[in-house]
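Schema walk-through. Below, the input block comes first and the output block second. Nothing else is stored per chain. Lengths vary across the set, and this one has 332 residues.
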Amino acid sequence: MTIDQNIHRQPLLSVKNLSVTFTIDDGRFTAAEDICMDIGRGESVGLVGESGCGKSVTALSLTRLVPSPPGSIESGSVVFDGSEIMTMDTAELRKIRGNAISMIFQEPLSALSPLHRIGRQLVEAVLLHRQISKKKAWRFAEQWLKKVGIPDAEERMYSYPYQLSGGMQQRVMIAMALMLEPALIIADEPTTALDVTTQAQIFELLQRMKKNFTSLLLITHDMGVIWETCERVIVMYASRIVETGSREEIFEHPAHPYTIGLLEAIPRLSKGRQRLKDIPGQVPSPFNYPPGCHFQERCPYAFDRCRREAPPLYDCGGGQKAACFLLDKAKQ
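--- output ---
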């Protein structure tokens, strides 16, 4: 076994039976249900699924950033580097957030303060976790703005967020997340507002950080990015994990009908002008999930058991698992 494989066998992050609910005026619903996942040291894991499946809520829960109210972490364990995050006090959490675990948020305006200049916000993050002078922290932050492709970085340090384009705001968020070289980066659609060239630069930067055994949880709709960036894939649908496995297993031998549908919807040059396949129907409302398997109303293979029971994750071999009764049926 190689050194890299040994490192991946030691989970940096271990999540067990994590469930998150929200209570709003319309009622109470479950946004993430019994989520279980491990992320090894230096490992890149992709979390995929349609909008509204619970990916972002799951990511926010890992450092207890779910707004409460209306959100509530109902149950579960999140162990990071041997410490249980769910029982940490506020002071301990502050030492980890932005330092050992950094998050690139999907909406930069929700994470950047509109009242303070970009430079001040970056420097504050550095000084909070590093014992260096303000002058050195300023130069350090400035260098990271250059690394993420912001032109005239020296000038931009004095800008307010509203003076930057959406793409530049996103790059500031990425610089803030990466500059302290965290052990784990949680990236929620990190390059949505960026052009293709800048996207490539950011993902190249993330790949370079992997060489220092930085782990990555990447949330994205882009299966091409998953193939290029991640070693393992977790597929979510309607608050539940429906399949997990290595990149090769998921792309070459998908086991869950939902995963198959996602992969068949990828545009390919070999298909020419052929119409793309789609998954019929829509993700159900969290207030009205169907009984049994949440995918059963859209699944072409659903049978009676799917409508009565929630399928567990069946072992497909080689570390791949899928929550589908077809796998149990095949064994009988």
